[in-house]
Design a protein that fits this description.
Length: 561
């Protein structure tokens, strides 16, 4: 039986090494696998179950689906030459996407590959003699449930099977919710509590259960004109949120942006995350996706620049302005963090390379940074890095300043390279071999602030417990003490809580799910006027429909596609 496990590992080509919290891909051959211990074999079986998460959370996959389809992000056809991509990002924002969208297809494929690997692990781990196999089996089964949550949220269905060779049973609505719930509840007793955010733990399952119960009303009837929340679901949201908060294991970070730093793996706010530490060769591209092509965040890498991708919409930006007027939104430390002093003191134009850090948060107006000429960065007479006003030299438009504007839309004026306020939430990796495509910042899936917000929402929806909800929200605001915290709120409602989720969780791939739950997804914004409730769920990729065509009636396309 052990030989069977080793051959399976050779086919998968991955091995968990160094520690049980550290995924690293290693190509195996049969001579190598014959020397594996039972522990190493078990490690190698669980590794592939997590290995697709970085691909799912790639900027053009899950991020695009969850953010660009909302009022939070927009990606126009930049300058008439970039990000055209056959109009897929325009369609995603306007809710006119089709079943041939390549980002939907790749996200679907990666999720199902992760699920398939989980099923393989579920069938193989029981043969392992190492004690860790019991925990790994629970993790594999829990990850299958998590992947099922993703397909339910995005595509409105769940695939259920216990053997790779079987045809899956397809569940929708209440049956899908109950299946995921039962799976998460079944594995929770056998999970660890403190193996880090990169693995499924008891805390991670509690967070996923809270999220499942909070969205259960939507998942049971995703096209409903009015979403009806059940008190028993809301009670469970509160119960599992309480478990996380009272465990004392997690802590709100006093520095908001440290949650998204390249060394955030040990940040106590993270409960469950995509493990992307440098040794994993992760590809967290969220750091550069929104930046200008003339913003270079790392002095060591003169080719590591932004890509003039998505920006926030004016509609979303105005939620900040309206909330803080007459003050500027920078009154909230989650909005912006200045790291370059030249923004407030123009004389500070020389910065030591080791001290250079790009500003974080929502970037507006004229941008300053490293000046690159003929492929190299300019330096001051004392050897420090020269910092100054940026222009679009990389686009051969030296007279166009990197001056981000509030306006951004699909018009010629609104889709120029400099339009739209940008987001620099995740930190560039300073250890990367390229400075650009390899990132080490773990991507949050569940974190403590979201748990407080879920609990607050459940209390509001169940009994309009304004006092408790207000306390939870202000707890988060007060925790960000590395700078002046955001002022405490004095009122609370579902609309205010929705706004607060937008402030706390922007660019973290929650917005579409939140908009649907709060009844905002059919609203109009920027270039989006579509009010079809069927667009809450994405089309099943046409390749999947075609692939299942030999089984009549097995896989049917979602309504309106």
């Amino acid at each position: 039986m052990k030989k069977k496990i080793y051959v399976l590992l050779a086919l998968m080509g991955v091995l968990f090494i160094e520690s049980c919290t550290n995924l690293e891909e290693v190509v195996l051959d049969e001579s190598f696998t014959s020397n594996l211990s039972d522990k190493q074999a078990a490690d190698g079986i669980i590794a592939p179950v997590y290995a697709r998460l970085p691909d799912i959370f790639l900027h053009t996959n899950y991020f695009a689906i969850q953010e660009i389809s909302t009022d939070e992000a927009i990606l126009p056809y930049r300058g008439g030459t970039d990000w055209g991509d056959n109009g897929i990002y325009l369609a995603l924002h306007a809710h006119t996407q089709t079943s041939t969208d390549p980002n939907l297809r790749s996200t679907w494929n990666f999720i199902l590959q992760g699920m398939s690997r989980a099923i393989t692990a579920i069938n193989t781990l029981p043969t392992s003699k190492d004690p860790i196999a019991k925990t790994y089996l629970a993790e594999a089964r829990g990850m299958r449930a998590y992947y099922s949550m993703l397909t339910l949220d995005l595509f409105g269905l769940v695939f259920v099977k216990d053997d790779i060779g079987e045809n899956s049973t397809i569940l929708r609505g209440d049956k899908a919710v109950e299946y995921i719930k039962s799976e998460l509840l079944a594995v929770e007793p056998n999970l660890e509590t403190s193996v880090g955010p990169g693995r499924l733990t008891k805390g991670a399952v509690w967070g996923l259960l809270a999220r499942l119960y909070l969205n259960a009303a939507v998942y049971r009837d995703p096209y409903a004109a009015t979403i009806t929340f059940k008190n028993e679901d809301l009670d469970k949201v509160i119960e599992y949120s309480d478990k996380i908060i009272s465990s004392g294991q997690y802590q709100l970070s006093n520095d908001y942006f440290s949650i998204f730093n390249s060394d955030n793996h040990t940040n106590k706010e993270l409960i469950f995350a995509v493990d992307q530490r440098a040794e994993l060769n992760g590809h967290n591209r969220l750091a550069y996706f929104s930046l200008s092509g003339d913003q270079f965040p790392l002095p060591a890498y003169p080719n590591a620049n932004g890509t003039d991708g998505p920006a926030i919409t004016s509609d979303y930006y105005r939620t900040w302005v309206n909330a803080y007027a007459p003050q500027d939104p920078t009154a909230d430390p989650r909005f912006y963090k200045q790291n370059l002093s030249i923004y407030s003191n123009p004389a500070d134009s020389c910065v030591a390379a080791e001290n250079f850090n790009i500003n974080r948060g929502i970037l507006r107006g004229q941008q300053y940074g490293l000046i690159r000429k003929n492929g190299v960065f300019l330096k001051c007479a004392d050897g420090k890095m020269k910092v100054g006003k940026l222009a679009y030299d990389t686009r051969n438009k030296p007279t166009l300043a990197v001056n981000f504007t509030e306006q951004i839309d699909f018009t010629v004026a609104g889709s120029n390279y400099n339009t739209g306020y940008r987001v620099e939430k995740y930190e560039f990796s300073k250890k990367s071999v390229s400075g650009r495509n390899f990132g080490e910042a773990d991507i949050s899936i569940v974190r403590l602030a979201d748990v407080y917000l879920m609990r607050a929402e459940a209390k509001l929806r169940k009994s309009n417990d304004v006092a408790s909800a207000l306390s939870d929200v202000n707890m988060i605001r007060a925790a960000r003490t590395s700078s002046k915290p955001a002022p405490a709120l004095s009122a609370m409602s579902l609309d205010i809580l929705y706004r607060e989720r937008g402030f706390e969780l922007y660019w973290e791939m929650h917005r579409r799910t939140d908009m649907i739950r709060f009844g905002k997804f059919e609203d109009k914004w920027t270039e989006k006027t579509n009010t079809d409730r069927n667009k809450r769920i994405f089309p099943i990729p046409q390749t999947a429909i075609d692939g299942a065509s030999n089984i009549p009636g097995y896989l049917t396309q979602n309504p309106s596609y």
